[in-house]
Specification:
Elements: H1 16-26, E1 30-33, H2 41-51, E2 55-59, H3 61-67, H4 71-84, E3 91-98, H5 101-110, E4 114-117, H6 124-139, E5 144-149, E6 153-154, H7 170-180, E7 184-187, E8 192-193, H8 205-214, E9 218-221, H9 229-234, E10 243-248, H10 250-260, H11 268-272, H12 276-296
Parallel strand pairs: 1-2, 1-10, 2-3, 3-4, 4-5, 5-7, 6-8, 7-9, 9-10
Length: 309
């Protein structure tokens, strides 16, 4: 079990591996929600508590840079809100798409219980080597590791740097998992980061089933914002276990900006400087969006109690 400051002593703060085991067994997914602003972490956690849902709170390396946040600041607000709101549902603090081991080390030191190494744009051998290094480092510290094989496209470049897409090969996935020892694998099978304006989402279920049949690790779909619920939910119940983690970021930010009557993104400092009534309106909007995703999209609402039986 993890021993970082903050996570220690809290039985409801889990690693990603622990959380996804329950989700896979229950044939639902856990939403991995990126508030993008530290002021919105409170809203994401409040949604989970009210919906009685397990949840993952995440931020990526590019989001840290774009919004002006450090892993330490993000983790401190996360653990502060756990105490402030007396959050009792299962939670994971996850570092999403990250390419630098230094950032991974910083996040683990700050109390993240899960990290993602993303070397998916590199040749297979380099991806294996870097993912293995991250897994060895994190596992020694009680932290789960997610990696990516194939390339997941994007429409807004907030989380990744290219819209290039390369579907995950099932045989390569089996070899990759064997060589790296990662706990979860993000796969490319038709979803993309951001908002679907021209290209429409699709899910290659046969590819997912083939990957799952050959790999023992939990599968992750990035690009959950904007995907029809029935399309996503079919991926949870595939033979042998389907997708157990779905990343949702853009929908949260869009609901925040709409509540504020804004179109342009802010920095984290600008968000924290909003008037109290604006912050409250933004948090209410984000909370409602997250609750809707838990109830109607990933189907995790009401599942928190099953973790502690």
């Amino acid at each position: 079990m993890t021993t970082q400051a903050g996570a220690a002593g809290r039985s409801n703060v889990l690693t990603l591996k622990q959380a996804l085991q329950a989700a896979e067994a229950g044939k639902y997914a856990i939403g991995s929600f990126s508030p993008r602003y530290t002021s919105m972490i409170a809203a994401v956690l409040a949604a989970g508590q009210e919906a009685d849902s397990p949840l993952i709170v995440q931020i990526s390396q590019k989001e840290l840079i774009r919004y002006g946040i450090t892993p330490k600041a993000f983790a401190e607000e996360f653990y502060h809100q756990l105490e402030e709101q007396q959050i009792t549902v299962p939670v994971v603090l996850h570092l999403d798409h990250t390419k630098d081991m230094a950032v991974i080390a910083e996040a683990i030191e700050a109390g993240f219980t899960s990290v993602m190494i993303d070397a998916s744009e590199k040749p297979f051998e380099d991806n294996v080597r870097e993912s293995r290094e991250a897994a060895d480092y994190a596992h020694a510290r009680g932290v789960s590791v997610e990696a990516e094989l194939g390339m997941i496209g994007t429409t807004d470049f907030v989380e990744t740097e290219t819209d290039e897409e390369l579907y995950t090969d099932p045989d390569e996935a089996a070899e990759f998992v064997r060589l790296t020892g990662v706990d979860a694998l993000a796969v490319s099978c038709g979803t993309a980061h951001g908002v679907y304006n021209v290209k429409q989402p699709k899910v290659d279920y046969a590819r997912l089933e083939a990957i799952r049949a050959l790999t023992p690790v939990h599968l992750v779909l990035h690009g959950g914002s904007g995907v029809p619920a029935d399309m996503m939910q079919q991926a949870f119940t595939l033979n042998g276990g389907g997708v157990s983690k779905v990343n949702i970021a853009t929908d949260l930010e869009l609901s925040l900006l709409a509540a504020l009557g804004r179109e342009e993104r802010m920095t984290d400092a600008e968000c924290r400087a909003l008037a109290p009534d604006q912050l409250a309106a933004g948090r209410d909007a984000v909370k409602q969006t997250v609750m809707n995703k838990m109830k109607d999209f990933v189907l995790s609402a009401g599942k928190a109690g099953r973790f502690f039986q």
